[in-house]
Amino acid sequence: MLGHRNARPASCLLSLCALAGLAAAAGAQGITAIALTGQQAPGVEAGVGFARLSPPALAADGSVVFFATLAGDGLSAELDEGLFSFDAGVGSLIVRESDAAPWYAPDTRFVGLSDFAIDAGGSVVLAASVDDPAVVDAAQKARALGVFTQVAPGVFAALARIDEQATGMPEGDLYETLDSAAVAPDGSSLFVGGRPGDGFDSQPKGLWSDRTGATTLLLAPGDAAPGTGGLFAHFETPTPVGDGFVIRGSFKPEGSQDRGAQGLWRETGGGLAALALEGHPAPGTTAGFAGFAPRVGAGEAAAAFRAELDSADAAVDSGLWTDRAGGLGLLVREGDSAPGAADATIGEISRSLSMNGAGDIAFRCALAGTTTDANTAVYLAQAGGWFLLIAREGDSIDDEPGDVRIAGLGDPLVNDAGEMIIPAHLAGAQVTATTNDALLGVDGDGRVYTIVREGDEIDPDGSGARVVKSIVADTSAHERGRDALDNNGRAGFALSFTDGSSGVFTSAIGYASPADLTGDGVVNTQDFVAYLNLWANSLPGADFNRDGGIDTQDFIAFLAAWSRDRT
Question: How far apart are CA 9 and CA 26, in angstroms?
């Protein structure tokens, strides 16, 4: 673990002689460095290190997985990309460009690693392109890609390959396109792919899975679309939910040349039923559904989604629906009173939401009718029916002394413990253009704090402090078993630094009071005496509000934090 946040006073003893040598760079909230640029990459030849690192995915088995480009003397472009896993500090190579690829020719190699999914056991499903030496046509080479599943360390098998006979389709129907796979809790893969046009769509797609042990066709364009009286026209990559999935697609009457209408269907126990359909009544309203956001929230046995309505009033034309109580019901709609914000109503709702196994739903929305600039908020709609206002523009942050306020909020992620992470933009007297973005954490008690912020000083490897320049967390791939927040309370993110280096990091969710100067997890009289000694002697750490000076305002800021967090 390594300390961070030069804004947070260091752990300190009560004697003045001990306090005199303290720096203010170490903090109570720890960040763990997983990998750094320039470090030797595991599983590759000596002298080859990480050059660029993607934001990490936290797998259910505890591993941290990420793409990396590699650099080293004489390293060719055919060998400069890999997918890596770190577990309990031990790194391993999952797959690298130039590794053997399962293809038609036995000496085919991977040449482009496009995307990946992680199953519950930590195995990978890979979308990648390959180089088949038997193919010389450039256009055909460019089409050489497939979906591959890991069957052993360093060994992959093909689920589907471009220009291969599409499983379950009539003879001569080939995979024309292949999308990245989703991964169900049982480890099975779900993916969509194209076939030659059949009048339904310019690029019709079917849905396949390997959950029976071999690639099997589940749905195809032209199949009956439950609840519609029409036929499926196309599908998109589904979201696994429980022992089934929710899939967004389109349907139309047989023989129709119209664009088709959108719908969501849910599979449970092998049976497929309509969840919500364009043009059909939207529960809880007098309007009908007009369209559905592509991202579906998935719980242990329930789903949630954002949809548009065919309402003539643009101020109330979207909402969130869920089937967590059994049947489909309205969760919240534009125009509803905003819980916890007496002066506001719910405005535009983000198209991206997060749902945990308990059925809690986290979402971001605008607030309408406000008399201030605080017009964005993040809510947690608990499974028990309560709406909690987690954060709102204009709020202060519990561990940020001085004038530091939320100026903008990104889409949240929530885990099964109700903990959350939220990207945020900051403003205030103690905020500059190089310190105004942060990744916020929310603990199980709803305390909002800063995990990491631009401008923070971090010493990731004992070589000296580096200043954080940017923060990136991947919040978009839950259906692929990839989350930036896991159920063990870890957040994963990538940081770049002002010296040009970067790295992959994790941090445990947990609020640490800035008033806990002794670092013992308790805010008490000892912390008060410690700060009094710092302040009275103008020692490092006394600039509590980070305004560059030490004065009465620092003491007032410390006293406020100490009084609030005192045990």
Answer: 7
pLDDT classification of 476: cutoffs 50, 70, 90: confident
Q: What is the mean pLDDT of residues 51-55?
A: 95
The pLDDT of residue 195 is above 70 = no
Confidence at 61, pLDDT banded by 50, 70, 90: confident
Structure tokens at 47: 């002298």
Amino acid identity of residue 334, one-letter, is E
Residues 6+ apart with CB under 8 A from 232: 200, 219, 220, 221, 222, 223, 224, 225, 249, 250, 251
Parse the chain into domains and list their residue ranges: 99-275, 279-351+368-377
Q: Whose CA is closest to 2, among 442, 462, 514?
A: 462
SS3 50: strand
For residue range 353-386, list pLDDT tens digits in order.
Answer: 999 999 999 999 999 987 666 689 999 999 999 9
Percent of the chain residues topping a pLDDT of 90 = 62
Element (H, E) at 95: strand 90-96
Residues 49/37, Cβ–Cβ less than 8 Å = yes
Indicate if the pLDDT at residue 553 is higher than 80: yes
Host H or E run for residue 565 = helix 552-565
Helix or strand run (H / E) with residue 564: helix 552-565
- Estimate to the nearest angstrom the gap between the alpha carbon of 347 and the chain centroid: 24
**CB of 70 within 8 A of CB of 80?**
yes
Q: Is the dihedral of CA 414, 420, 421, 425 positive or negative?
A: positive
DSSP 301-362: S-EEEEEEE--S-GGG-EEEEE-TTSS-EEEEETTSB-TT-TT-EEEEEEEEEEE-TT--EE
Confidence (pTM):
0.88
Best CA proximity match to 482, nearest among 182, 94, 245, 186: 182
C-beta of residue 53 within 8 angstroms of C-beta of residue 494: yes
Bridge partner list, 346: 367
CA-nearest of 154, 130, 218 to 181 is 218
pLDDT digits 0-9 by tens, 201-217 = 445 679 999 988 899 99
pLDDT tens for residues 296-320? Answer: 999 988 999 999 999 888 777 899 9
Going 460 to 465 to 466 to 472, the CA torsion angle's sign is positive
* Helix and strand totals (H; E) in the chain: 4, 38
- Buried-state track 345-364, b at ≥16 Cβ within 10 A, e below 16: bbbbbbbbbbbbbbbbbbbb
Distance CA 402, CA 391 (A): 18
Tokens at 544, concatenated? 């509590």
In order, the DSSP letters of 264-295 are: EEEEETTEEEEEEETTSBPTTSSSBEEEE-S-
d(CA 44, CA 48): 7
Q: How many CB atoms lie within 10 A of CB 163?
A: 13
